[in-house]
């Protein structure tokens, strides 16, 4: 049975002896007794991208060849987007419980659409995301929990939602990031978390398989190699991702704001191009479901909110989180993307690589385990 991104930190905490932590991934059988655990999330390093990444990544090639470390397949949570996955990682629960239900969501009782990447303190993170993180739980158990993050991440709403409770170690672009991670890991027993966005950025801007993406793969591999080589004997390194991705060609793009059939009855638009949340005018939901189902037949699954929740897309959903989901949920299949040029910044339409939907290319992620 494939595990989930929600299982990673509870399993790491169990290795460290945290109470109420459960090792659903069987990590103890692989690494034995450890006093230190590093968890590194490589944004955008999907399971199905590993063979192509390995061309420029000797360590990943060795992992794929079963010569180094241990490789397992996990699944991220839906939508397969960074804010949702990071909070699922940090809390160990699915999006319906933690409430960070997409890249963007419309605030209930407001026309404002919240972009979780640019979120600061409105709404307050502890109210918007009420679930305790594993960093908090480790600290309450008297165990060390740190996160080595870019300085501009610290203090953001997303960082607080996903990692609150961690002792933050800020880094700048010119810093030796691998060195900082190694130093924090060596400073004492406990959990250390790290994150790199290079690969995902290259995929979005230049496309999966582009020279820039392959260069990012080489940089990520060099980072991971340094961490593996510097692991203390009593340490484990867990490498995972938040989602995969795919390129969307121009012919596969649909602009809802350029098609009156798709715009009819829609009051507000959230989500992202692979998963759209449509908030409808009063009484229009059935007509919107019907119109979108007809126009995007064979290219997307179209649900009412109730049907999407009943299908278990988000896991169990707290009642107070329900209205963060659109009245209509559109999840693309194949390589389709739904743009919203009147609702989003123009740079969204210029992206090459996308993710967010429920395809295997987007949802499957690796877990690579190393022992010092």
TrEMBL record:
Protein name stated in the entry: Nucleotide pyrophosphatase
Organism the protein comes from: Mycobacterium kyorinense
Pfam families recorded: Phosphodiest
GO molecular function, one term: hydrolase activity
């Amino acid at each position: 049975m494939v595990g989930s991104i929600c299982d990673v930190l509870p399993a790491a905490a169990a290795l460290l002896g945290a109470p109420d932590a459960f090792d659903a991934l069987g990590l103890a059988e692989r690494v034995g007794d450890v006093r230190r655990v590093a968890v590194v999330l490589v944004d955008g390093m999907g399971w199905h991208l590993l063979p192509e990444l390995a061309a420029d990544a000797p360590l990943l090639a060795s992992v794929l060849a079963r010569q180094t470390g241990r490789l397992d397949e996990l699944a991220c949570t839906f939508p397969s987007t960074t804010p949702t996955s990071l909070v699922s990682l940090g809390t160990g629960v699915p999006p319906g419980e933690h409430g960070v239900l997409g890249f963007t969501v419309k605030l209930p009782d407001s026309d404002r659409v919240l972009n979780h990447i640019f979120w600061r303190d409105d709404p307050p993170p502890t109210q918007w995301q009420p679930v305790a993180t594993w960093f908090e739980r480790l600290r309450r158990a008297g165990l060390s929990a740190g996160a080595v993050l870019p300085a501009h991440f610290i203090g953001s709403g997303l960082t607080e939602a996903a990692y609150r409770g961690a002792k933050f170690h800020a880094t700048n672009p010119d810093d030796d990031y691998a060195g900082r991670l190694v130093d924090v890991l060596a400073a004492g027993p406990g959990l250390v978390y790290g994150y790199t966005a290079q690969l995902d950025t290259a995929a979005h801007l230049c496309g999966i398989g582009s020279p820039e993406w392959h260069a990012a793969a080489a940089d990520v591999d060099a980072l991971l190699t340094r961490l593996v080589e510097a692991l203390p004997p009593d340490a484990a390194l867990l490498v995972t991702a938040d989602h995969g991705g795919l390129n969307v060609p121009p012919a596969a793009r649909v602009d809802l704001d350029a098609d009156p059939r798709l715009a009819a009855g829609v009051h507000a638009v959230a989500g992202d191009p692979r998963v759209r949340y449509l908030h409808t005018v009063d009484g229009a939901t059935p007509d919107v479901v019907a119109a979108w189902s007809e126009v995007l037949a064979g290219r997307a699954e179209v649900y009412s909110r109730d049907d999407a929740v009943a299908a278990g897309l988000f896991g169990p959903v707290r009642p107070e989180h329900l209205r963060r989901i659109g009245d209509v949920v559109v999840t693309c299949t194949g390589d389709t993307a739904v743009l919203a040029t009147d609702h989003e910044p123009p740079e969204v339409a210029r992206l090459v690589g996308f993710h967010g939907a429920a395809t295997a290319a987007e949802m499957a992620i690796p877990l690579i385990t190393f022992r010092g």
